Amino acid sequence: MLYKQNWDVVKQRYLEYWALENHDRPLLAVKSPKAQLSDSAPPLKAHASQKERWFDTKFLLARVNHQFENTFFGAEALPTYFPNLGPDIFAAFYGVDLAFGADTSWSKYHDLDFDVYGGLKLDRQNPYYQKMLEMTKAAAEDGRGKYLVGVTDLHPGADALVSMRGPEQLCFDAVERPDDIQRAVMELFDGFKTAYDELYELTTQYQQGSTNWMGVWHPERWYVTSCDFAALISNDMFNDLIMEELQAELCFLDASIFHLDGPDALRHLDTLLSIDQLKGIQWVYGAGNPTAAYWIDILKKIQAAGKMIHIDVVPDDLDVLLENLKPEGVLYTMHVSTQEEAEAQINKVSQYKKMLY
After folding, report:
1. Who contacts 283 (Cβ-Cβ below 8 Å, separation ≥6)?
2. Paired strand residues for 149
3. Quick one: which of 227, 87, 248 has its CA closest to 152?
4. 252-279 confidence digits (pLDDT tens)
5. Any idea what the Cα angle at residue 263 is, between residues 245 and 346, rounded to 5°?
6. What average pLDDT does this structure show over 204-214?
7. Residue 153 pLDDT > 60, yes or no?
8. Does an H or E element contain 202, and which?
9. What is the value of pTM for the model shown?
10. What is the largest CA-CA distance in the chain?
């Protein structure tokens, strides 16, 4: 792979990670700017609107290649790109329009003119859906032999309903219309299967295995499971409204890591750890909260349940984490400012076996 020359070695490391057999050390995905940057300037282009910029596939791929040319992908860090129109794109497949800013997009659910509880069916002719197919195909063709291409950021289930109803209204619905939510999330699951299958097929025409926004590689069909809406509801509601659809996703996929987002979502950790099909937890402690080392008891609990761990760390976290967690099934992600610093962190993690004796 052009941007990851030891790809065959790293591929084996990910197989060990999924199998909880990386006995020598945890995985580390550390990125930084390269010590020697290319002479070329990043692609620039004037666009008439933010939406036009987000939809400019050729321009976006030129920027991706420039970024990867100038990025040091240390240890198990991978050059992965997922075509992206924002976190509400799955709801857009059902007719919700999106507004685009410089760094993200959001659903215009206040403009919705259909009853989301009147029966939901994915429209494959929807312009957002067709655009995502075009972007994914173009990226897969461009990335062949250079980088990995992932399935876009799909949020089915209750998070899709948040994109359609808004978080406040969905909280009321959880109390007043729980049966409607249960029915709707399973209708959305049918659409998720269609979208995932089609996007997965496009990417795997040009690469082995799959990835997504989490940047982890798996030899078969894997995807992030998540429910950010869970932070707003009780664990009883989570079991009543979310679990059936979540378990259906897990049965559909070959593997999954659950994106557990923020301290308010921790009330559901025990429930998640009890799910046999779920391989692991990505613990996201959230901006403004203490970093990974502070949450060592949570991480130990995840590991004691036999689940994989995926967590973003800062360099100061590593000593505590290496001392307290076993390496099997653990992946730390990190961004640092220089390649020299990245290599120092790789060296620290590589000393793991020496720390044990």
Report:
1. 260, 292, 295, 298, 299, 302, 309, 310, 311
2. 81
3. 87
4. 999 999 999 999 999 999 999 999 999 9
5. 95
6. 98
7. yes
8. helix 178-204
9. 0.96
10. 65
Instruction: For tokens 């550390």, name the residue.
Output: 30
Place of tokens 């209708």: 187
Q: How far apart are CA 181 and CA 285, in angstroms?
A: 28
Mean pLDDT, the chain, integer: 96
User: Distance between CA 285 and CA 154 in Å, rounded?
Assistant: 21
Give strand ranges (E) for the chain: 27-33, 71-75, 80-81, 98-100, 105-107, 148-149, 225-226, 257-261, 280-284, 308-312, 330-335
pLDDT tens for each residue of 157-188: 999 999 999 999 999 999 999 999 999 999 99
Inter-residue contact 167 to 174 (CB < 8 Å): no
In this structure, what token pair is assigned to residue 92? Answer: 């857009």
The torsion of the CA quartet 84, 90, 91, 92, rounded to 10 degrees, works out to 50
Distance between CA atoms of 4 and 13, rounded to whole angstroms?
14
Answer positive or negative: Cα dihedral of 161, 162, 168, 171. positive
Region 41-55 average pLDDT: 96
Distance CA 3, CA 357 (A): 36
Quick check: 136 and 83 in contact, CB under 8 A? yes
Helix axes 178-204, 243-252, angle to 10 degrees: 20
> Encoding tokens for residue 189?
């699951």
Nearest to 32 by CA among 356, 347, 344: 344
Give the pLDDT of residue 353: 67
Whose structure tokens read 């989570």?
Answer: 238
302 φψ region: left (φ > 0), alpha (ψ -120 to 50), beta (else): alpha
CA angle 9, 10, 15 (to 5 degrees): 100
Question: Tokens for 5?
Answer: 């020359």
